[in-house]
């Protein structure tokens, strides 16, 4: 499997400002320009400003900081202008010239705080639930007290995986066709290890040998905050790790749509890592549900699903849409008997990675997410399906529902469970225990 829709959609050259005809389609589609008057729109701060700027001239003014980097502008542009990429690079130029605030540096190092905070999970989780402490953090650090910060799991996914390998060593697969590499990301490692456990259980149920080499943050938080040196450092480490697998044609799959977007496209088209190694890794990297959909097309996905008699709303994250591959989660979930999943008609949930955590942008984030919130309320559903972790946290906070990853439904339909995880309450689901894993 080497097809990569994003690479076909986006050319190698990110600088395409001269293709802009000022049609304003990007601005009309931008959910942030619609609610924030200080942001004149992605076209104005991006290609319109950039093509009038001589090489080496000062970067645009700080209006570009109100851009969330969601990528909808690039997605809708009829002329292929990489609007989001241009705006993100402009942010990086401002950071290069003026430096980064301590708050933004903090938000850019999620991998570090997740790892360091794991031994202190009870204390830190108490602080996250304390309204007075959150207000103090808001005043001191500029992180909104209303933002949906995740709680630490108290153990890491990688720690569980090492123990699991010792308890249940896997036989060497017959060929590389039976191998798959899993990219878990920071969230799964520190905050949602059950997502990684379920991913492993599903891949093994499919008949694949799962390998999880050392890895680091995808770099997207640093990139989004204009820290390109930090983002490139993360990116280069991951490329070095995954290149040997890509060269052998072994697929790399991940359960975070935002992380996979970074690896598949941002490393090249935003960070400028245009060598063959970055492209090779990108061509062999897949979103988890995209990978399952491809297996189904090849007749390699087991269809021994138990019925789930539910109707659930689904939100496609902006990063997933940027892949240009449709809605693979809907394609796979449609194979489960009785399950009816419909897509919410909302462009963005409003969180945009670290954007919605910043105190000056929290109200904007909530305004952008209001359309999604209304549709969830109107549906009456107590559960929403979404592929990206920050979007799930935002949805849960705004709608007071349970937000789950699509693989949780796949695992339920396969009757797969893992110890320490409670499957979603799904009326009509007949869930047995075919696989388990101890924490």
Detailed description of the structure:
The protein is α/β, with parallel strands linked by helices and 439 residues long. It has three domains: 5-98, Fumarate Reductase Iron-sulfur Protein, Chain B, domain 2; 157-297, Glutathione S-transferase Yfyf (Class Pi), Chain A, domain 2; 310-413, Rossmann fold. The chain has helices spanning 5-9, 25-29, 42-45, 47-50, 72-76, 83-98, 102-107, 110-117, 121-129, 131-141, 157-167, 185-190, 193-206, 220-224, 228-247, 257-269, 276-283, 288-297, 318-321, 328-333, 362-368, 370-379, 389-399, 406-413; strands at residues 179-183, 209-211, 252-254, 285-287, 310-315, 339-343, 383-386, 402-404. Strand 7 (383-386), helix 23 (389-399) and strand 8 form a beta-alpha-beta unit. Mean pLDDT is 87; it is low at 1-14 and 427-439.
């Amino acid at each position: 499997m080497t097809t990569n829709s994003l690479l076909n959609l986006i050319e190698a050259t990110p600088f395409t400002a001269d293709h802009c005809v000022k049609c304003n389609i990007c601005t009309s589609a931008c959910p942030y320009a619609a609610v924030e008057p200080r942001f004149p729109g992605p076209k104005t701060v991006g290609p319109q400003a950039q093509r009038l700027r001589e090489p080496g001239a000062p970067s645009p003014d700080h209006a570009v900081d109100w851009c969330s980097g969601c990528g909808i502008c690039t997605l809708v542009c009829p002329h292929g202008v990489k609007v989001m990429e241009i705006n993100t690079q402009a942010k990086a130029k401002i950071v290069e010239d003026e430096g980064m605030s301590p708050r933004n540096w903090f938000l850019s190092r999620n991998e570090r705080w997740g790892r360091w905070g794991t031994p202190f999970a009870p204390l830190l989780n108490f602080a996250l639930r304390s309204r007075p402490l959150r207000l103090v953090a808001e005043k001191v650090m500029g992180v909104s007290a209303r933002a949906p910060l995740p709680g630490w799991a108290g153990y890491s996914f990688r720690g569980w995986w090492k123990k699991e390998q010792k308890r249940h060593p896997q036989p060497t697969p017959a060929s590389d066709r039976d191998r798959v590499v899993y990219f878990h990301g920071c969230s799964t490692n520190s905050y949602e290890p059950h997502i990684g456990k379920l991913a492993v259980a599903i891949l093994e149920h499919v008949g694949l040998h799962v390998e999880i080499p050392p890895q680091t943050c995808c770099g997207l938080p640093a990139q989004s905050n204009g820290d390109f040196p930090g983002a490139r450092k993360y990116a280069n480490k991951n490329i070095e790790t995954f290149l040997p697998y890509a060269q052998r044609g072994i697929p790399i799959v991940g359960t975070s749509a935002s992380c996979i977007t970074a690896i598949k496209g941002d490393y090249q088209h935003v960070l400028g890592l245009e060598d063959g190694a970055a492209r090779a890794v990108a061509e062999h990297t897949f979103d988890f549900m995209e990978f399952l959909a491809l297996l189904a097309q090849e007749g390699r996905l087991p269809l021994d699903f138990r019925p789930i008699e539910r109707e659930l709303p689904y939100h496609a994250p902006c990063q997933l849409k940027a892949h240009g591959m449709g809605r693979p989660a809907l394609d796979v979930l449609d194979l489960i008997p009785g399950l009816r999943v419909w897509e919410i008609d909302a462009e963005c949930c409003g969180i945009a990675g670290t954007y919605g955590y910043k105190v000056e942008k929290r109200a904007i984030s909530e305004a952008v997410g209001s359309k999604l919130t209304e549709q969830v309320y109107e549906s009456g559903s107590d559960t929403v399906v979404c592929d990206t972790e920050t979007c799930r946290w935002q949805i849960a906070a705004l709608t007071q529902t349970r937000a789950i990853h699509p693989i949780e439904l796949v695992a339920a339909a396969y009757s797969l469970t893992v110890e320490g995880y409670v499957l979603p309450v799904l009326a009509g689901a007949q869930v047995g225990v075919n696989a388990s894993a101890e924490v």
